[in-house]
Amino acid sequence: MGGGARARIEALVSDAPDGQSELRINADLQLMGHLSELGQPLIKRKADGIFQEFANNLKKLLAG
User: Fold this and answer.
1) pTM score, whole prediction
2) Domain-by-domain residue ranges, the chain?
3) pLDDT on residue 1
């Protein structure tokens, strides 16, 4: 089964109007070959879940 993947992740921290910090994460994942045809929906769900878990854990960590 041939295929491949390429990912680019950007993170930007900026000042929010309320004096707090705002973190924005942008991820671009490109799937190629059979991997894109068969695995894309599953990989998207898993990636969305991982990013949500990351956000929740970071929020807890920063809250103390």
Assistant:
1) 0.58
2) 3-63
3) 57
